[in-house]
């Protein structure tokens, strides 16, 4: 998978101390995006699931945020990472430019599986006209913080 960066000890990308994985590739092209370089998947560095998990596990005091780019752009690989991180007991937040409704309407089983591993979803594209720096963990007023544990998103049986 292509990864832009992995940073440790963030306090702005979800509650508590977090390791943030910024994935490459994004189809949204939001005006005012804080990282437009992440739109092109080729700007990322190739990393295996194991490499990403090892980097996150090197900082055992943090939980995890999946960000981008767009994590759902590489959903199959990100799903494998999330599964492994959940096995390590990590709380997982995921940021997406898609809405929760769009994700739930998808027929892609990896989307539903990935949602099942995540605890919190921050959904919706960044909208420059709705930018609000006073909002915790969001860039614009249209974005929502959704507790996925209350929505009972089911993880389908694992594929062999």
From TrEMBL:
Family stated for the protein in its record: Belongs to the organic radical-activating enzymes family.
Known role: Activation of anaerobic ribonucleoside-triphosphate reductase under anaerobic conditions by generation of an organic free radical, using S-adenosylmethionine and reduced flavodoxin as cosubstrates to produce 5'-deoxy-adenosine.
Keywords: 4Fe-4S, Iron, Iron-sulfur, Metal-binding, Oxidoreductase, S-adenosyl-L-methionine
Name of the molecule in the record: Anaerobic ribonucleoside-triphosphate reductase-activating protein
Signal peptide stretch: none
Database matches in PANTHER family: ANAEROBIC RIBONUCLEOSIDE-TRIPHOSPHATE REDUCTASE-ACTIVATING PROTEIN, PYRUVATE FORMATE-LYASE-ACTIVATING ENZYME
Pfam families: Fer4_12
Entries under SUPFAM superfamilies matching the protein: Radical SAM enzymes (SSF102114)
Cofactor(s) required, per the database record: [4Fe-4S] cluster
Reaction it catalyzes: glycyl-[protein] + reduced [flavodoxin] + S-adenosyl-L-methionine = glycin-2-yl radical-[protein] + semiquinone [flavodoxin] + 5'-deoxyadenosine + L-methionine + H(+)
Enzyme Commission number(s): 1.97.1.-
């Amino acid at each position: 998978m292509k990864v832009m960066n992995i940073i440790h000890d963030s306090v702005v990308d979800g509650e508590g101390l977090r390791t943030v994985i910024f994935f490459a590739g994004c189809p949204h092209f939001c005006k005012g995006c804080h990282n437009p370089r992440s739109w092109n998947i080729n700007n990322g560095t190739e990393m295996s699931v194991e490499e990403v998990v090892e980097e996150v596990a090197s900082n055992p005091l943090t939980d995890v945020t999946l960000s981008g780019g767009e994590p759902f752009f590489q959903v199959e690989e990100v799903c494998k990472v999330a599964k492994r991180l959940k096995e390590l007991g990590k709380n997982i937040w995921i940021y997406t430019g898609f809405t929760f409704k769009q994700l739930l309407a998808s027929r892609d089983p990896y989307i539903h599986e990935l949602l099942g591993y995540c605890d919190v979803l921050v959904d919706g594209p960044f909208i420059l006209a709705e930018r609000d720096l006073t909002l915790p963990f969001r860039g614009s007023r249209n974005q929502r913080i959704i507790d996925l544990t209350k929505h009972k998103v089911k993880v389908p049986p694992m594929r062999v």
